[in-house]
Amino acid sequence: MPSKRKRTNPSEQKSQIIRGILPFVFSLVLTVGLSGGLCAIAANAMCTTDLAPALLIPLTTVLICIALLIASLFLSAIFKGGILAGTLLASVLILLLSLLSFLLYQSSFTSLWATKTLAFLASGALGGYLGSVLRERRRKIRR
């Protein structure tokens, strides 16, 4: 006996795609905003104290990883997503930052770029995992 699947019309499919894209775009904007805010705080701290300029690259990498972790946790906890959603968010951020860096500095990819890429992907995946765990826990508590 053939299974009866409910057919979705094209307008419902379009609205499902839009509902999936909007949280992703919001999380990407949240990542950029948090990164900018955290880097501004770090810049203020570097100006008021005597931190070494050599700490600038690791410090900004850590701050962007924190912002990415928070945004991917938000994406996975509030909306449906998981490790894949967090990793996809990190991948889009890496692509945007690499494109911006290439357009501004015309530099080639180095081992530092690979290290930052791995750190961003790990932060996104960890945030996605933690967000899905929080969503599951919240669902179990409601029952």
Automatic annotation (TrEMBL):
This is TIGR04086 family membrane protein. Keywords: Membrane, Transmembrane, Transmembrane helix. The chain crosses the membrane at residues 21-43, 55-75, 82-105, 117-134. It comes from Ruthenibacterium intestinale. The keyword Membrane applies.
